[in-house]
């Protein structure tokens, strides 16, 4: 996602090695610049030539490093606030192709059925090959109500979808109370205030009823601010490493502080192929510290960190500066996180026969005498009817609660069971996903 409000890196760690500017080699650039200015078939202004040269330097580094001119940077800031005009897709630009990480819930892309893994080859007939992420951003975004046609490849099928741009509202955190006092918490992206909102949602549910466990849904969460993911992990971890970042000659570790918002209650984390970047940091931190059980599908596998640096004359560059490593020291770059319990994207209807095979559903069954009245039907089954992974998460969480398999060490959590709410992060290490 685009970084939130504070996206300027005040200083980068000093790097060792050869950092001198190669003035002699730059004479080649000056010579080529002069030849183009003098002899190119069409007139071209200096600013365009310089901007193209800058883009060329960054686009050849990796899929996530890019240059943003002043207008693109302005749009970038707007998107970081979670409100923008577009079609609602999160994309990964790699090796000249544009792949869908996920479609934002209730967006035009989601309503049209665009799926994780779809390859978008053209927009309005224009090829996206070898474009930078900021250039693609300009093509996808536009005025509300305007149309755009995407050419999509899904497996061996090539087809077109016409979408109308809308104002996209990205809500970072939502929650509900499930059966047996289990909390369901969904995080769609990591913004500056995500950890604060997670704490508020948990505390709000705890006011209604003491919680017995948590289902943390990180599916189709394309990432966001690394600081925010670290703060969110710290809410549920009493100790241990959360993540480490390593640059060329720089390393920093982020460790959990004492206190657990749930006081050791069991957690199940839902992940899938759309779980990327900062959300993978959170999932790995909880899984590898034995604080949660992960179920679902293998995650996306984005293990790099981008830093945004504003430029003196306007605009900014987004540069890959670090790789991140899970508590076990593993990089998930291009490999992802493997869930402890793999579950495909099935629906409960495919398993419904087993649910209906009980005495009370048989024709002409005998009525019970002195039977205990069944409890009112909860929202669990109606929610799970469309989400088999969630249904299984509830079953697993119930078993975990009964067997008490996840029991962290004694904590120093305050008596009210809550961890102090994190302050909005003033940190400078950001991860990045691209919203369009």
Beta strand count:
20
In terms of structural class, how would the helical and strand content be classed?
alpha+beta
Instruction: Report the sheet with the most strands, covering strand number, pairing sense and barrel closure.
Output: 6 strands, mixed
The top level CATH class name of the domain at 171-306 and 321-357 and 377-424: Alpha Beta
Q: CATH H-level name of the domain at 171-306 and 321-357 and 377-424... which superfamily?
A: 2-enoyl-CoA Hydratase, Chain A, domain 1
The rounded Rg comes to: 25 Å
Low-confidence stretches: 1-11, 348-353, 371-378, 409-416, 425-435
Strand content: 15-25%
Looking across the biggest beta sheet, what order are the strands in? 10-11-12-15-16-19
- Helix percent band: 25-40%
Shape: globular
* Overall pLDDT score: 83
Could you give the topology of this structure?
Layout: H1 23-39, H2 46-59, E1 66-68, H3 70-80, E2 83-86, E3 89-94, E4 97-103, H4 108-111, E5 119-123, E6 126-127, H5 133-140, E7 147-154, E8 157-164, E9 166-169, E10 173-177, E11 182-187, H6 194-208, E12 213-217, H7 226-236, E13 241-246, E14 251-255, E15 267-271, H8 278-288, E16 293-296, E17 304-310, E18 316-325, E19 341-342, H9 352-356, H10 379-384, H11 388-403, E20 434-435
Parallel strand pairs: 11-12, 12-15, 15-16, 16-19
Antiparallel strand pairs: 1-18, 2-9, 3-4, 3-20, 5-6, 5-7, 7-8, 10-11, 13-14, 13-18, 17-18
Helix pairs in contact: 6-7, 7-8
GO molecular function: endopeptidase activity; serine-type peptidase activity
Protein name: Carboxyl-terminal protease family protein
Family: Belongs to the peptidase S41A family.
């Amino acid at each position: 996602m685009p970084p939130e409000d504070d996206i300027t890196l005040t200083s980068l760690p000093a790097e060792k090695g050869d950092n001198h500017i190669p003035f002699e080699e730059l004479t080649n650039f000056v010579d080529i610049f002069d030849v183009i200015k003098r002899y190119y078939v069409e007139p071209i202004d200096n600013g365009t030539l310089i901007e193209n040269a800058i883009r060329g330097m960054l686009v050849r580094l990796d899929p996530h490093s890019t240059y943003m001119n002043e207008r693109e940077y302005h749009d970038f800031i707007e998107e970081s606030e979670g409100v923008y005009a577009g079609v609602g897709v999160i994309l990964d630009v790699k090796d000249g192709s544009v792949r869908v990480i996920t479609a934002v819930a209730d967006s035009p892309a989601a309503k049209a059925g665009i799926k994780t893994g779809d390859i978008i080859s053209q927009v309005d007939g224009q090829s996206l090959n070898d474009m930078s992420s900021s250039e693609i951003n300009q093509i996808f975004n536009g005025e509300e109500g305007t149309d755009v046609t995407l050419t999509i490849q899904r497996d061996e099928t090539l087809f077109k979808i016409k979408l109308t741009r809308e104002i996209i509202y990205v809500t970072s955190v939502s929650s509900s109370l499930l059966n047996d006092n289990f909390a369901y918490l969904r995080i769609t992206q990591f913004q500056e205030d995500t950890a604060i909102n997670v704490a508020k949602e948990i505390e709000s549910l705890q006011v209604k009823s003491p919680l017995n466990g948590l289902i943390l849904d990180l599916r189709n969460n394309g990432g966001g601010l690394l600081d925010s993911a670290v703060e969110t992990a710290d809410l549920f971890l009493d100790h241990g490493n959360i993540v480490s970042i390593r640059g060329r000659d720089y390393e920093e570790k982020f460790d959990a502080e004492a206190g657990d918002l749930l006081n050791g209650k069991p957690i199940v984390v839902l992940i899938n192929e759309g779980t990327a970047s900062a959300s993978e940091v959170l999932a790995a931190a909880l899984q590898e510290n034995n604080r949660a059980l992960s179920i679902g599908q293998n995650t996306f596998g984005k293990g790099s960190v981008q830093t945004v640096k504003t430029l003196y004359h306007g605009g900014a560059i987004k540069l890959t500066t670090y790789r991140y490593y899970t508590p076990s020291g593993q990089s998930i770059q291009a490999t992802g996180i493997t869930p402890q319990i793999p579950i495909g994207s099935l629906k409960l209807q495919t398993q419904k026969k087993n649910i209906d095979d009980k005495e009370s559903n048989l024709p002409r069954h005998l009525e019970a005498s002195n039977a205990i009245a069944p409890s009112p039907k909860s929202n669990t089954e109606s929610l799970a009817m469309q989400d088999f992974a969630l249904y299984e998460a509830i079953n697993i969480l119930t078993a975990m609660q009964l067997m008490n398999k996840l029991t962290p060490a004694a904590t120093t959590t305050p008596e009210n069971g809550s961890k102090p709410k994190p302050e909005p992060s003033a940190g400078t290490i950001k991860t990045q996903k691209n919203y369009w």
